[in-house]
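Batch job 17 of 40 flagged for manual review because the log was empty.
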Amino acid sequence: MTRILIIDDDADICYTMGEICSFAGWEVATAANGEEGVRSFLARRPDLVVVDYHMPVMDGLATVRRIREHDPLVPLVVLTVDERQEIADTLMDAGATDFALKPVRAPDLIARLNVNLRITELQRKSPDAYTTKGISEVTQRIIADFLAEHREPLSAEAITLGVGLAYQTVHRYLAYMEANGTIRVERTYGKVGRPRNFYHLP
């Protein structure tokens, strides 16, 4: 049975998320802070960890770093209300693989965790496929395959919906893939505001 560890100082959130994960057929353990969570991780070796960003004792960033020291592949999904890309980038630099935004909705959470479990299953079959700063070739391939299924360039929002990862995760991968030439970007300029980016394969 798939084992999920939930690390959050809010007992109500731990209970709610535990019920959602149990409904999905997963075995659930919870921890009330980062230090307790790291100990539980080492004792239980779960298949996926959900980590709250804002916690006393040891916050989500420090918790992600500590767990990543012990396991380079376990999916670490950060639970947060902060949608800023710079926060996401810092967490992914530390080893986070994806995000789930509060308030949590059951169908979205189950789908998000399933995607991350599937990515990690593929990753473990090719353990050398991790590149730098939390970027994985498996996730890049999933995004590239989704783009290959569509003739027209797609927005980051459309790609996010299509692959089932958080917008912040997709945005980071798109920037990385643009920089290394895996994908191309078309920018559409309106009368006001920032340009919109649309992505496609070369």
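Reviewer: the log was empty due to a logging misconfiguration, but the result itself is present. The longest strand covers residues 3-7. Unflagging and moving on to job 18.
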